[in-house]
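2024-03-11 09:14:02 INFO worker-7 job=invfold-0412 stage=load source=structure_tokens
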């Protein structure tokens, strides 16, 4: 079994202590997400795990880990080389066409990287990472600038990596990335705090129901648990669909003067709000 265990990790930039006795254990098949405000140390932690910041205190124990690979902050490539030439520069000669095709880059891979958009560079970085096939993936905002098709490819690739016993550690703020993770930790004051997986599941699918008037909202509220209702504003109500059948809920809402119903995308602010309510 593969395992990485971080114990009492501390790190400073000058006199500013960023990590303060941080603990984390990951084993084969784990996908761990780390969320938190900018500047709390998410990228710093990934650099330490990847071995780029050796001047930390504490202990990191690795079992069955031969290599660590991934994306931290901005992807870095040789701009005058093609995408494929960059793959061969970092990985050596080989046939990477199957992975390239998964990401829809079969034509663009032979263009110079200096002609790539931000999204294309991100795809190239992910192709490089998955072709490297490491024991531990470290990923910093991995779906930045990707279209929905590429996000779907990413989610599928992470699921496949987990099934192979790989360890995935990512820093992100996007719910679509969090839902594929087994644990979601909030980084605060230099440590990893609560596991937010329960809240992430709750907010991963939310519907907005709009009624003719507020009576429709009140009738709908009377049929729901308080914990299912995320927000009420006038004749509009937001409902989490975590464990519900959307068709049945639409049938129910249609009895009360339903004007429209549509899925919406929530952000981590709502998750944080829910966590604060749980702690108080």
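2024-03-11 09:14:09 INFO worker-7 stage=emit residues=280
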């Amino acid at each position: 079994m593969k395992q990485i265990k971080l114990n009492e990790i501390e790190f400073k930039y000058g006199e500013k202590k960023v990590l303060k006795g941080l603990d984390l254990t990951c084993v084969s098949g784990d996908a761990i997400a780390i969320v938190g405000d900018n500047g709390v140390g998410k990228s710093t932690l990934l650099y330490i795990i990847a071995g780029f910041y050796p001047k930390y205190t504490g202990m990191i124990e690795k079992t069955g880990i031969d290599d660590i690979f991934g994306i931290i902050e901005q992807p870095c490539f040789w701009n005058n080389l093609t995408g494929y030439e960059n793959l061969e520069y970092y990985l050596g000669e080989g046939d990477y066409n199957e992975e390239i095709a998964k990401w829809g880059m079969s034509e663009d891979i032979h263009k110079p990287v200096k002609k790539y958009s931000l999204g294309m560079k991100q795809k190239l970085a992910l192709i490089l990472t998955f072709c490297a096939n490491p024991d531990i993936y470290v990923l910093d905002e991995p779906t930045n600038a990707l279209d929905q098709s590429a996000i779907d490819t990413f989610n599928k690739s992470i699921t496949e990596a987990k099934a192979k016993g790989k360890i995935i550690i990512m820093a992100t703020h996007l719910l679509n990335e969090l839902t594929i993770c087994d644990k979601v930790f909030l980084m605060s004051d230099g440590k990893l705090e609560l596991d937010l997986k329960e809240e992430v599941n709750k907010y991963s699918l939310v519907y907005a129901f709009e009624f003719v008037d507020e009576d429709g909202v009140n009738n709908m509220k009377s049929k729901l648990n308080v914990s299912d209702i995320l927000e009420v504003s006038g004749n509009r109500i937001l409902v989490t669909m975590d464990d519900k059948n959307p068709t049945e809920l639409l049938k129910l809402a249609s009895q009360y003067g339903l004007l429209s119903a549509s899925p919406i995308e929530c952000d981590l602010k709502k998750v944080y709000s829910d966590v604060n309510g749980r702690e108080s």
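2024-03-11 09:14:09 INFO worker-7 stage=report msg="The longest strand covers residues 16-27."
2024-03-11 09:14:10 INFO worker-7 job finished
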